[in-house]
Specification:
With about 850 residues, the chain is α/β, with parallel strands linked by helices. It is built from 31 helices and 31 strands. Strands 6-21-12-5-11-10 form a 6-stranded mixed β-sheet, sandwiched between helices. Helix 24 crosses helix 30. The protein is elongated, with a radius of gyration of 39 Å.
Length: about 850
């Protein structure tokens, strides 16, 4: 089927009579070859009256193709004009064929002629036809032709500019070439001039964007561009398809307009709201580093500044830098407040540390972890040095020197108190078993107290999980073999001659096999021990069945060793905080797996804690201990042996005073000092009596059927329901405080017309305020409305839409909306004179 036959077939689907004028008589053969079974072909040659009678009287339902050779007669000489106007004309010039194919009227022939190169490709015609709507005329069609040229699904000048800028950032001139080839260049730049007041005799996308960025930069050079260019940039940053190209264009423009030199003399307050250039974040970070390092800014002010950057375009890329600043500031502030703390009793010190001061060590870990995520960027170098000095000298050393005075008063290690690790089984495990409830005990080697605090917070934020944390005091020396044995059911602990291996009631506590035997003999229930890796390989559905692993036991101890294994190896000790983060994630996954295996009761605890200092240590951090005797085991933080004498560098205990029924002596270096031991790591240590080593977490977890979490609620203060200017100031209110169970809520807000058109920039914010009155939890944003709001949508109802993210996706879902009526005066379309 040729094109003419195909076109006529489509026309006959809608029309009964078709007029075909072949002025140059070029298509006579094609006419003669046409064969339409249901259509009567007539070559009109002066028999117009006969044809009119035939069509209207003799066959009023029939289909006719009227073929004319020669020029189309003038209206006054056209005997069939009335019928022609009532039916359809078929044109066979190239432009007409294109128009007919697309279902457009012949009056648009000049449009096709003007942009003939565009219409020559069937692919472009097909795509344009998808965009066309009923009644589209010259301007609407040209506008939609641009969508085809720029390859966008959204018919919007803003989107065309985003696509154009994206191609430019890749050094691709395809759009410029296409605009020129299809004769659309003048139209495109005319639309940009009309909307944004861009004036240039030789316009280019980069010149335009450079002017747009410069105009909207807080420290930039203002020009005559329309205010709506702000919205152009805002929408670009929020467009998933093009946002990465925004970053590339921004970086080039920053170099070309000298943003760095402009920022040199600027203060944080000058640029805290800028969202155009990454250099602004670099400047803010640089200034905050200096201020925090010199301790000339309050912690509250640092938090405020970082919160203001949180919803900015570049924040995700530099988040680790800002997190480093926050934790460094928090750390220094708390150390300055608490480092000189002294305790009258052992219990006072352990309880105070467990209640609040563990946060210092948590903040240090989070600082180092984030600092390493920045590849230890040199912009943070001064701050890292400051943090190390303050943490090591003003916290670890001073705080533990003071604590050592409390330790020096002890003759024996507290082992009969309820917080003792030695009483773990009787005090915590047995009551659960007595209730005939199955219990899983997860023991994570070296999960120190502050790590447990973070794990607890994560668990509390999980819906349908209840988690509470208390502290326990590890056995001394605080090393793995003794700590693991202490957590097992036992009456007597002893240490094997010439080793550090611990026996419980005469049974070795080494390895899962030894621990399983102790559990089987001493627990009084069906009990076993298993490595975490082996447990995680199990099939949950199979092993929770009647003959599965879980149903076979009342008590299951699960052991994992990631933190201690990483820290105890000299070659990997610097990665210990990464290991902590991996371990917390692993423990979360294990808890969830246990829950799927019908395990509703879980404990998470540790054998001991640790001290870690990220920098290499000085000679002064090591103790020279002139001890003598038979040494069974010597470590950085303890010595075990027999008949040992010591000096003032260490604190000595007899085995019986540590609850160990062996004739041994134990030495512990004072404060945080290390003993010189060949080949051992020195930054990660444990075994001593510092609070970081001996205070360990006991997290009790249960799976519930009721919801345990919610999110903060967000509302707005609405003083009017009318929008009268292109700026709408909105006050968002977080109506309740965030907490462990009341979680933050991320909101995206935009003003949207009822037909789905977005009429403003988007505002994103994480509402996570934990304290203060309702008005103190107020967050303000000024929405910039597009020119459409005062023209196309004038006097119409619009909505302020609040959306929240769909977990695990890039999608957003409805949260709330608020209605307004647009009544913007025409004067608001003028820019400032």
């Amino acid at each position: 089927m040729n094109k003419i036959e195909e076109a006529l077939n489509k026309l006959f689907e809608k029309h009964r009579v078709i007029f075909w004028y072949d002025e140059k008589e070029e298509l006579v053969e094609q006419y003669q070859e046409l064969n339409f079974p249901e259509v009567k072909k007539i070559h009109v040659q002066g028999n117009e009256f006969e044809i009119k009678h035939l069509i209207n009287k003799q066959a009023p339902e029939g289909k006719f193709l009227l073929y004319f050779t020669g020029a189309k007669p003038a209206n006054e000489n056209n005997w069939l004009l009335d019928m022609e106007l009532a039916h359809q004309i078929f044109n066979t010039d190239q432009e007409a064929m294109f128009l007919q194919e697309m279902g457009l009227g012949y009056h648009l022939k000049e449009l096709v002629t003007e942009h003939l190169e565009f219409f020559k490709a069937k692919e472009r015609r097909v795509k344009l036809k998808e965009f066309l709507g009923d009644g589209d005329e010259h301007q609407e069609i040209k506008y939609k032709m641009l969508a085809v040229v720029f390859g966008t699904e959204n018919i919007s000048l803003v989107t065309y500019i985003h696509a154009h800028g994206a191609a430019f950032s890749e050094s691709n001139e395809k759009h410029d070439v296409a605009l020129q080839r299809y004769n659309l260049t003048n139209y495109y730049w005319g639309e940009i001039k009309r909307k944004y007041n861009y004036q240039n005799e030789s316009p280019s996308i980069y010149d335009f964007l450079l002017e747009v960025f410069n105009t909207n930069f807080i420290l930039g050079k203002k020009s005559g561009l329309a205010k709506e260019t702000r919205l152009l940039l805002s929408l670009w940053k929020d467009t998933i398809q093009f946002r990465d190209y925004f970053a590339k264009v921004s970086d080039k423009i920053a170099s070309d307009i000298g943003v760095e030199s402009k920022l040199d003399q600027a203060s944080i307050d000058d640029i805290i709201g800028d969202d155009l250039f990454k250099l602004s974040d670099v400047k803010v970070i640089h200034e905050l580093v200096q201020l925090i390092t010199s301790e000339s800014i309050s912690n509250e002010k640092v938090i405020q500044y970082v919160k203001q950057r949180e919803n900015k375009f570049w924040f995700e890329e530099v988040e680790s830098f800002y997190q480093s600043l926050l934790f460094a500031s928090d750390l220094i502030a708390l150390i300055r407040k608490q480092a000189q703390t002294k305790y009258a009793t052992f219990e006072e010190g352990t309880e105070h540390y467990a209640a609040s001061l563990y946060e210092v060590d948590l903040m240090y870990r989070k600082f180092i972890w984030n600092y390493r995520k920045t590849s230890q960027n040199k912009i943070l170098a001064d701050l890292a040095v400051k943090v190390e000095k303050v943490y090591s000298n003003d916290w670890l050393l001073i705080y533990n020197n003071n604590w050592q005075s409390t330790i020096d008063k002890l003759k024996s290690w507290p082992k009969d108190i309820r917080t003792s690790q030695r009483s773990f089984f009787d005090t915590h495990v047995k009551p659960v078993l007595d209730k005939k409830q199955r219990l899983f005990v997860i023991i994570s080697d070296a999960l120190r107290y502050e790590c447990g605090a973070e794990l607890t917070k994560r668990l509390q934020s999980e819906n349908r999980y209840e988690a509470t944390m208390n502290h326990m005091i590890s056995s001394l020396p605080s090393y793995t073999q003794l700590g693991m044995a202490s957590l097992l059911p036992h009456k007597v602990l002893s240490i094997q001659e010439n080793s550090d291996i611990v026996f419980a009631d005469g049974m070795s506590s080494s390895g899962t096999q030894g621990r399983t035997k102790i559990l089987e003999v001493n627990s009084g229930v069906r009990a076993t021990a298993i490595k975490a890796e082996d447990f995680m390989k199990m099939n949950s559905a199979k092993e929770r069945g009647s003959d599965g692993f879980v149903q076979s036991y009342d008590l299951i101890y699960i052991y994992h060793n990631r933190i201690d294994k990483t820290g105890d190896d000299k070659t990997t000790e610097e990665k210990v905080f990464e290991a902590v983060d991996d371990e917390l994630q692993f423990l979360m996954e294990m808890v969830k797996k246990i829950a799927t295996m019908n395990g509703n009761n879980m404990f998470v605890t540790a054998d001991h804690g640790f001290i870690y200092q990220h920098n290499e240590l000085e000679d002064s951090d090591f103790s020279v201990s002139n001890h003598t005797g038979t040494i069974w085991k010597e470590n950085r933080r303890f010595v075990i042996g027999r008949d040992i004498t010591n000096d003032n560098a260490t604190k000595a205990f007899k085995g019986e005073y540590l609850g160990i029924q062996s004739n041994i002596d134990v030495l512990i270096p004072k404060s945080i000092n290390r003993l010189r031991v060949k080949g051992a790591g020195s930054r990660f240590i444990h075994g001593g009596a510092s609070l970081q080593e001996i205070v360990i977490p006991l997290i009790k977890i249960s799976k519930t059927r009721q919801n345990t979490t919610s999110q903060v609620a967000i509302d707005i203060i609405k003083s009017t329901d009318r929008i009268t200017t292109n700026i709408l100031a909105v006050s968002f209110i977080q109506t309740n405080s965030a907490s462990e169970q009341v979680l933050p809520r991320t909101i995206r807000a935009v003003i949207r017309a009822e037909d789905g058109e977005d009429l403003s920039d988007q505002f994103k914010y994480i509402f996570d305020i934990e304290e203060g009155s309702e008005r103190q939890r107020e967050v303000k944003h000024r929405f910039q409305l597009s020119s459409k709001a005062s023209v196309k949508y004038k006097n119409q109802r619009v909505k302020l839409i609040l959306e929240e993210p769909v977990d695990g996706t890039t999608k957003w879902k409805h949260y709330q909306d608020y209605y307004y009526t647009l009544n913007i005066s025409f004067t608001n379309d003028f820019d400032d004179f």
